[in-house]
Every structure is written in structure tokens, then in C-alpha cells.
Amino acid sequence: MNVQHITAPSGARTRSVTALIAALAFLIFYLLVSPIAGAIAPLPLPDAPTDEVVAYFTEHGMASVVTGGLQLLSVAGLAVFLWAIRCHAAQTRARDLCLSFGWIAIAAMGLSGAIAIGLPLVVSVLSPGGVEFARQASFVAGGVVHVVALGAAALTIGLWRSWSRPVRVTAWIAAVPALLSVTSVFWYYASILLPAGRLLTMTAFIFAGVSILRGRSLPSQTSALG
To answer: 155-175: b or e for each residue (b if 16 or more CB lie within 10 Å)?
Structure first.
């Protein structure tokens, strides 16, 4: 008598909309910052005089609070995205690195948002130099640190072999300007890499969310190499 062995297909793929919704929230709440907060009061330029910065947080604190609130909502979307992709793959080195860099990005933007919310509340008791220092710390955390960490997360997605090729290629492309944005610390004209890297990595995460929704990426069992 012949015995037929039936084996369940390895690498069965799962579908979920959570990652896509979270990645869209990450992008949309960030894009809302400028039109909403700017409608209340325009944010002073990075090289604005200190007295202008102090006046902004004293007279237009609500604009800063709105900015911080939208930033926190944006990175909440990133946190859900990381949770969603973590649930769709076995543990690998690439996955762990991606999540680690992603949480650094969340912590950096979370700090920036917290400063934006808190600074108008304490501006009256801070020296002008203290206000300027806090504002610059918010810029650095929510700018260079956040974007470089996003770039590192995108780079590791490119190395994470469970993803489909389009997702990996998109992530690699996004990682280049995001990682190079660190040069903006030394060269002002490289600041254009900050929004470019940020938006491209957000787009790469949306591609990843679409890929999961279509069942094109992240099989339930993956190789130990990523």
C-alpha cells in the first residue's frame, strides 16, 4: 500500500493591513505639522535670533504644542509599524537590527515632540540661552538623529531577505539620503537630505505595508540569516 505524505507548504505568507495603516499614519501626521502649526504661527528659522525664538514660544506656544503633538502621533504610527512587521517574521539578525534602529528613531522624535510641547510651559522660567539650547536639541533629535536612524532601519530592511525585492530596493534607495543627512551637521547645504531621506524612508515603509497586505513579503517562517 502506498502512503502519500502531505507536507504543509513552508514559508506560508500572511496578510495584514496593520503595517500599511501605521506607515500611512507615520507619513500623514508628519505632513500635517507644517500646514496646521504654520497656520497658527510660522516656526522661526534655525538661524533666527534668540529673542525671536523666545517670543515665538512665549506668544505662540500653541503652535509648538500642536507641532509636538503631531510629531508624537507620527512616531506612534512608526511604533505600530515596527510591531506589525515584527509579528510577521521569525527572529533574524536583520529584523532585530531594523527594529533597534526604528526604536532609536522613535525615541529621537519622541524627545523632539516632548520638548516642543513642554518648552512653551517653562519658557518663562528659562534664560534665553536655555530656550535656544532646548530648541536646538529638539531640532537635532527630530532631525539628524531621527532621519539617520530611519536610514539605518531602511538599510537593514534591504538586508532582510524575507521582504520582496521591490521593498528591499526601495528601502536601499531611501537609506542613501537618510544616512548621508548626517553631513548636514557640518555642511548647511546638506540639510536638503533631511526631508528627502525622511520622506523616502516613509515611502519605503508604505511599500512594505502594501507588500504585507498583498502577501508578497514576510513568510511566517524565515531563514536564520534574515
So the answer is: bbbbbbebbbeebbebbebbb
In the block, which residue shows the cell 539617520? 148
Instruction: Give bridge partners of residue 13 from the DSSP assignment.
Output: 219
Using alpha carbons, list the distances in angstroms from residue 65 to 14, 19, 39, 122, 219. Answer: 39, 27, 13, 12, 41
Find residue 93's DSSP bridge partners: none
pLDDT tens digits, residue range 168-184? 999 999 999 999 999 99
Select from 26, 12, 8, 7 the least CA-distant residue to 162: 12
Q: How far apart are CA 42 and CA 210, in angstroms?
A: 35
Predicted confidence (pLDDT) per residue in 33-51, tens digit? 999 988 888 888 777 788 8
CB contact set of 76 (below 8 Å; sequence gap of 6+): 25
